[in-house]
From TrEMBL:
Protein name, per record: TerD family protein
Protein's organism: Streptomyces johnsoniae
Feature: compositional bias, Pro residues: 190-316, 325-340
Pfam families: AIM24, TerD
Superkingdom: Bacteria
Region called Disordered, residue ranges: 174-347
The TerD domain, residue ranges: 1-170
SUPFAM superfamilies referenced in this protein's UniProt entry, alphabetically: TRAP-like
Family annotation (CDD domains): TerD_like
Length: 569
């Protein structure tokens, strides 16, 4: 049976198939468009730390052949063989991507899918079309990742750049292409005679593909420079009629008045006296003085003077021009020594926009994305699923978004009044736009649930997907000073946004794990929580106390956790 995925859905691979030697096929079509299908083997930090696990048309397999690109077959644009048992432990995620080779964007595709075949039977398929993209030229289709075994996720996340931008996103380096020298024709290899069994299909471009461009021939070597001729002996300059006065060029060498070459004075000779004698006004050179660069032309007699124009930037004497360095733009601010421009930021003539460019958000599309530690964006157009948020937490929205009131009902109101946990009223966001959420400049943390559960106090919840279910869970013990005996337990498939004061700390649960009840944010649903009181007669006999007499004790099997914040409410 084929399991159909939508964008953002995740599942255990063992729920789809027990096989580990899988066939992954990608089919994507578009009028007049060519696509490159690749696979990235990423580490635990989602970085391409080993270039040998970037599988594409120039590197069709990994060193141990756990990842192999098979080419177009069985109706697929490209296909791969993935042997999960042979994938090294250093590879934590396999990301399958598609990029546009040439002109066009993903909004011009007709349809496409990524499918998983085990033992010749298709077990999973993620289908997509042009309505899910706009200006993207690259898209991450699906991932295999390790989490208590291998899991599969339908991603569908796009990038405006092509394959180079995708490679840089994963931490890889893009090598500059150099024309290789023309290689001699390869000798024919081994081939079985006609009628024999067909060989195992290997990597090959799809039939009808464009032929590779011809290799450019190496340029001929540059001729050696000819030896400089010997300087001729200076000859006396013959007398000549009055020469034509050249046009003065700003910054160029000006010949002496009267034309001709004036030899330097010999040793012991006195310099010639200035024309006109001592005290006479200076005599202008023939043709008049040269105006400085940028000065307006001389106005005729009686006409108003022309306004002075700004002088263009002049080269600094003695400075050397670096080939390939950017030239100064008229009107642009001068570079400040020691301040480096933001990589990838648009160079705007005005200084204000250039400074604010570093705060521009990312362009990739996700259901939930963090703009900064205190601001969260939810893209309702990813899957059309509504979300629930605290009333008044919206700070900005773009596109078609409808905000509605969601009451808790009489039963939920009574539960909230009795336990102190719950949401009497929420804000329900629907539509296809993007909503930005924040609350009191607190730090926000998206927690993705994949069928598991987590317990959290309601005052630490900012928003969550409507697909998640929650209920009030009781904490065992004799009571909490200044708090409640209950918490909310969220479970299902979706994302929960938790807010904290400061950077939180995740602690593994051990038999001796205690935390202040006012600093606890959340804990795993599998952990047992008890109220612990430190009561000692000797301490109680004296007035005053330490203020740390009541804590929460956590118990549970390995793998459970508790989250605390550096702040007490």
């Amino acid at each position: 049976m084929v399991t159909h995925f939508q964008r953002g859905r995740k599942a255990r691979l063992s729920d789809l198939t027990l096989g580990t030697d899988l066939y992954v096929g990608v089919q994507i079509t578009g009028p007049g468009m060519v696509f490159d299908i690749s696979c990235f083997g990423l580490d635990a930090d989602e970085r391409l730390s080993d270039d040998r696990y970037f599988i594409f048309f120039n590197q069709p397999k990994s060193p141990e052949e756990a990842l192999q690109q098979l080419g177009a077959q069985a109706g697929d644009t490209d296909s791969f063989r993935v042997t999960l048992d042979r994938v090294p432990a250093s590879i934590d995620r396999l990301a399958f991507t598609a990029t546009v080779d040439g002109e066009g964007t993903m909004s011009g595709i007709t349809s496409g899918y990524l499918r998983i075949v085990a033992g010749g039977e298709e077990v999973a398929r993620y289908s997509f079309d042009h309505s899910e993209f706009s200006t993207e030229r690259a898209v991450m289709l699906g991932d295999f990742y390790r989490k208590d075994g291998w899991r599969f996720a339908a991603v569908g996340q796009g990038f405006d750049g092509g394959l180079d931008a995708l490679l840089r996103h994963f931490g890889g380096e893009v090598a500059e292409e150099e024309p290789p020298p023309s290689a001699p024709a390869a000798a024919p290899g081994f081939a079985p005679p006609g009628g024999g069994p067909a060989p195992v299909p290997g990597f090959a471009p799809p039939p009808g593909g464009a032929s590779p461009p011809p290799q450019a021939a190496a340029p001929p070597p540059a001729p050696a420079p000819a030896p400089a001729p010997a300087a001729p002996a200076p000859a006396p300059v013959p007398p000549a009629p009055a020469p034509t006065q050249p046009i003065p060029v700003p910054g160029a060498f000006a010949p002496p008045p009267g034309g001709g070459y004036a030899p330097p004075p010999g040793p012991g000779s006195a310099p010639p006296p200035p024309p006109g004698g001592f005290g006479a006004p200076p005599v202008p050179p023939p043709g008049g003085y040269a105006a400085p660069p940028g000065a307006p032309p001389a106005a005729p007699y009686g006409a108003p003077p022309q306004p002075y124009q700004q002088m263009p930037p002049q080269p600094v004497p003695g400075a050397q021009h670096v080939p390939g360095a950017p030239q100064p733009v008229p009107g642009a601010p001068l570079p400040v020594p020691g301040v480096q421009p933001v990589p990838g930021a648009a160079q705007v003539p005005g200084g204000m926009l250039a400074v604010l460019e570093q705060y521009r958000g990312a362009t990739e599309r996700r259901r939930w994305s963090q703009r900064n530690p205190q601001l969260m964006r939810a893209d309702l157009g990813i899957d059309g699923q509504p979300l629930m948020a605290l009333q008044g937490s919206m700070v900005l929205y773009q596109g078609d978004v409808d905000f509605g009131f969601k009451g808790g009902g009489l039963k939920r109101r009574a539960t909230t009044w009795a336990t102190g946990q719950g949401f009497p009223s929420m804000m329900r966001c629907t539509g296809s736009g993007q909503v930005y959420l924040a609350e009191g400049a607190t730090r926000l943390h998206p927690v993705e649930l994949q069928g598991d559960a987590i317990c959290v106090a309601s005052q630490h919840v900012l928003a969550f997907d409507e697909s998640l279910e929650y209920e009030v869970r009781r904490i065992d013990g004799h009571g909490l000073p200044g708090g409640s005996l209950f918490a909310l337990q969220f479970q299902g498939h979706g994302t929960l946004v938790v807010k904290t004061h400061g950077e939180p700390l995740v602690l593994p649960v051990t038999p001796m794990t205690f935390a202040d009840a006012n600093a606890v944010i959340a804990w795993s649903a599998g952990a047992q929580v008890l109220v612990a009181n430190q009561v000692r007669l000797r301490r109680q006999a004296y007035p005053g106390h330490s203020g740390e007499t009541t804590q929460l004790q956590f118990r549970g099997a390995p793998g459970n956790f508790a989250i605390v914040q550096p702040y007490e409410i």
